[in-house]
Amino acid sequence: VTVSVDQPILRENDRIARRLRQQFHASGTLCLNFISSPGAGKTTFLERTLAQLPPGIRTAVVTGDIQTDNDARRLGRYGFPVQQITTGGICHLDAAMVERSLSQWKVDELDLLMIENVGNLVCPTSYDLGEHAKIVLLSVAEGDDKPQKYPGIFRKAELVVITKVDLLPYVSFSADSAVAYARAIRPGIDHICLSAITGAGFDGWMSWLQKRLDAKAQQPDHGVQRPLETATT
Amino acid sequence: MHLLPAKRYDVFPQSLGVYCTLGSERLRLTSSIHGLNEVHEAGIAQSLIELAEEHVHRSGLLAVSRVGVRVGELAGVDPESLRFCFNCLKESGPLAASELVIEWRSRYGCSCVINPPFSNELESFCPVCHAPADPPEGESLRLLYLDWTEDDTQ
Question: Alpha-carbon distance A230 to A228, whole Å?
Answer without folding.
Answer: 6
